[in-house]
Each structure stands twice: as C-alpha cells, then as structure tokens.
Amino acid sequence: MAERRITRVVGVGPLTLGGGAPIAVQSMAATRTQDIDATVRQVELIEAAGADLVRVAVDSKRDVEALAEVRRRTSAPLSVDLQENYRLAALVAPHVDKMRYNPGHLHHHEKDRTIEEKVAFLAETAMEHDCALRVGVNCGSVDPRMLERYGSDHVSGMVASALEHCALLDQMGFERYVVSLKDSDWRKVVEGNRRFAAERPDVPLHLGVTEAGMPPEGEIKTRVAFEQLITEGIGDTVRVSLTLPFEEKGREVTVAREIIADIQAGRFRSVPASLDQGLNIISCPSCSRVENEAFIELAQDVKTMTAYAKDHDVTIAVMGCRVNGPGETDDADLGLWCGPVAVNLKRGEESLGAYSYDEVLGRLRVELDAIIAERAAV
Question: Where are the domains of the chain?
C-alpha cells in the first residue's frame, strides 16, 4: 500500500484533516433539521457510533433557527450542507465548524453575481467565523458551464470544476478547505479522485460514493472505491452513504471504520467481474431534504419488487428529494424522486408523471417489464 499523501492541514473544530492525520469518518443526519429533537437524537446516534464529524442540511432560515438549537444541545463537531442557497452561509457559520457548498448549485441564485463573487462571500464568511469549507462536487450536479465544455464526460467536468474552485479560494488567500468528488458509480469516484489528486496533491480529499444504496450492495460499492483510492494514499476523510432506517444510521460510521481497518491491515476483498452487472439499484442515504419519510420504505420495496429482474442490466435510481432527485436520476434507466405526497417517475430524462406512494410500484413494474421486453427483442 502506498504511503498517505501529506496534504496541507485543515482544522475543523477540534478535528484535523489532512497532513497525515488519521482518516476521519463522518456521516449525515437524515432528519428534517426543523425537527430538533429527532435531529439531536440522530446526531447523538452518529456520534456514539464513532463519527468524528456530523453533517446537517440547511435549506431555509427556519432550518438555520433549528440548527442553532441543535448546536446548543450537542457538543459534536458539526458540518452543514448549504444546498442551493449559498447566502445562508452568513447565518449558518456561527453554529458550525465546516460548511459544504456545491459549485454546481451556485448558479441558481443571484444570477447577476459572478461565481467569483459568490465564492469570495463564502470564503470571507468562513474566515470571519473560524470555519472550514468543503468544495463538494457531484457528477449528477456539475456546474452547467462545465457541462457545456465537456458534454457527457462528467468526470472531466467534475475535476475541472473542483480545480477551478480551488484556484479561486487560493487566490483569495483561503486555504482551509477540502474537496470531494462523488458519484453513485464507484468507477467515476475512483477516476475523478485520482485525476484531482494528481493535479492538487496538497488538497485534503473527502471520499464517498454518493447514493451508494442499501446494504449490502451499497457497502460493496463503497468498499471497492475506498480500497482503490486509500491504497494509493488518497483520502483524508470518508463517508459511507447508505439508505438506512433512523435507528441504524450509525451503521454508516461502523462500516466506514471496518473498511479503513481492513485496508490498513491489508485485508482486501476481491472485485468480482460481475460487480454492477445485472440489476443496479441506486438510492440516496436520506437527509433533512427528504420531504416524506416513506422514501426509505419505498426504496426497500423497490429492491424487493424488482428482485425478479436481477439478471437484467437495468439501473433504477430512487432519490429522496427535489434537490438531487431530478438531475441525479437522468442517467438511470428508471428514476424515482420523492416529494411530500407523490413520487415522480422517469425513464431516462423523460418524465412519466407523478404517482402516489401506493401507485408508483405498479407503474414502475410496467416500465421495467417494457425495458426488459424491448431489449430482448433486439
């Protein structure tokens, strides 16, 4: 195994990322942030499982008010996901140790302001409140400018976006940041992080396979990516993203610890040639953006209902919210993204309509059978 890259050191509250420090493990609360009791309880569960850092999503001023109370009721190091409203950083920063922003979301608000101006605001806010930043790039939500430049080559777009934002932060004199490059396809995660690390070996990297899915498949995809990267000395902090019931959320942390321990001890699992062949179900780990907790049960029901198609090369994505759902189901053969009372069903990029949680499984099966029949006829 290659020696760890010695990156710059990034302080996150009491935690040290990079610089050869032990690989930190984090997870994310899957509750509505405004449900303060549930969010505090989940933070406690995640911390008790051994997490070094816990992330919470914020999408409105009411979320910020709830976050302030969560902060008062827990001593766990906290990170926040700014989602699509980067301006909330000024309200959020006093309550957290790190803020994550997605370069692909900065174009949604205040379109008369440049990307440089928005990044400057984030950097200045972080400096003022003693916060670190994570530049969190996802293949499913790459900056539209990069999509125009690289087309369907999302990995190149993802790497270019991350490099651009690192350069902007460096020019502003802000170096207290880490970078993540994620996708639901472990191969893209490996390729993207390898390419970025070759260009910027000084920057600490946060590793993860986003929307890895349910155990055990989600654990396997994540393990494969981590084995490839950590053995090459790449990775300073990690998150395992699994679709889990509330009380089992700490399993993301224990699985991450097990994978890291196995890698460090030289215990590797072979990568079967059949990995990702046949039916592939992608599902997000859930977070406070989920507007109906029936999402988790739906994901499990999709897995059960579609078991008969296990030998067919079909990808089904089950997403829990309106933020990631529309874009990150585009590459799937069939996609479901969940709203408060209905599930939006897609075939590729085409919308097939919205269905109640009780109806959608039946319509999904019709579409799945149609895909199987069409491919058999070729």
Answer: 10-264, 280-376
